[in-house]
Amino acid sequence: MESDPLNIIMSDQSVLPLGAPVCQLLDASASRAFGRCSEGLDDNDGFDLTSTPSSAIPDEELDPRIVHAAFAPALGHPPSGPPNDTSQGGVHRRRQQEASKGRRTRKRRAQATSALPAAAQKPNNAIVKSQDGISRIPTAVSSKDLPHSQSGSWIGLRLGATSKRPSDPKVLVGEYGYELIEWDGRTTKILADEEDVGFVFLVGRPADPLWDGVCLETAEALKAVEEIGRSKELFGVTYTGNRRGPFVAIPNGVSFGGGQTEPGNLVHSKDLQILVQSLLKNEAVRRVASFQSGDRLLHSGASIVPILWDELTALFEHYPALKSNFTNSIFPAASFNCGPQSVSASHFDYGNLSFGLCALTALGNFNYREGGRLILHTLKKVVEFPPRSTILLPSAAIEHANSLIASHETRYSIAQYAAGGLFRWVAHDFKAAKALNSTKKGKAKRLEIDGPDDQRWLNGVKLYPKVSQVDKVS
Q: 0.85 exceeded by the pTM?
C-alpha cells in the first residue's frame, strides 16, 4: 500500500485517519508491538541496512528549511567542546590523558565482557555531577532483576507491551499505586534500587542561556521534516505505523538486525535521505545530540561509556564505510521523532544493548504538568518530562510510555541508542552467532564469549553508579 499523507497505515495494512482519537492510535501501536514480538521480528524490520558507503548529498541539495530553522539567527555558534589546543604541550597532554583513559577503558571492557561471576569483580562506583545537586528516588525494583535476555544478555528480553494499564497518570497513581515524580527538568534526580544502584537518570539541561533557542530550533527542524515528508508522501508504514506510537519516527545511523548478515547503515529513499541529512547538518540538532552524549552521560553512566566507546571504535575501524550520525556523539544511531505528537505507546526497546543507556530529549510545546509524562511501568513511576530536558534510562529493560498531550499541543523528541547486536558482533570477532554455531569449534568459542546465562547482564549492572558516592557539585 502506498504512503498516504493524511492517514496512518498500520502493519496489517489497515488505515487510521491522522485525526483519529490518539487513544485508538496508541492501542493500534501497542497491538503492533505485541505482534512483532510474537513473530520474532527485530526493531529494524522494515528498514534496509547497507555496509556500502552512502553517497554524500551536496550542500546545495539540502533543504534550507531544515538546515536553518526559524530560530537559527538567535543561537550563535559557541563550540560544543573546549577549544582545540594545537600546541606541542597541548598535544602531549592529550596523549597522556588518552593513554591513561585507555588503561581504564581496557580494564572496564574486560569487566563488562568477562564471564567471571559479578561477585568476583570489584565494584566501580561512578561520580555523577550536577550543577544543582542530586536527589535520590528509591524504587522497589532491583536493577539486577530488570527484564533481559539470558544467553549472552546482549539485548533486552523480546517482550511486547506487558502492561494493559491505561496511560492516564491520574488513574495509574490513584488506582494502581504508581508514584508521581514531579520534576522541573533542571535539577538532576536518580532513580535507584535498594542497593543504592542508580539506573534511571533525570539529567536535566545544560546551564546554557541559549538552550531554549537551541531546543526551539530543533523542534522546528523536526516539524519541517514531518511537514515536508508528508507533502511529498515519503512516509509509509515503517515510519508512521511504528510499534512505539502513531507519529513519524525516522531511525538513522548504524544498527544491526532485521535479518541482516552484518552491521550496516540504515537506508532511506533519496528524497527522505535529503531531509535526514539536512537535519544532521542543523547546528541546534547537533548541540542536542552533543548534550545527550556529553558530560552528563559521562558522569551518569561513567563506567558504561568507556565500554561503548571501546567497542564501537573497534566496529568503525573494522568497517570504515559505517557512518554515525554525529561526530560529537558516542551513540551510533538515533530516532528522530517528528510528531506532530510524539507520544509513545508502552514498549521495550529490546534490540538495544541490554544494560546500555538510551538518551531521550523532549521537545515541543506542551504542558508537562498535564501530559507528555514518562511512564515507567516496570518501576510503577510516572515522571514529569518537561520539554527541553533529557533523561537517560536502560530502555531495553524498562517498559515505558508517554501520557497523552492536548490536541492543540505538539511534542517532538530525539532518542539516541546503541543496538546490542553491534557489541555481540564485535565480541564474536566480527562474525554472526549463526556463523559461529555452524562449526563445533565456533560454537564452543561463542559459548565461551557469551558466558553463563545472566552473567553479562549482572556485570553490566555493576557499571551503574552508586548514588551514595555521588559528588554534588554546586
A: no
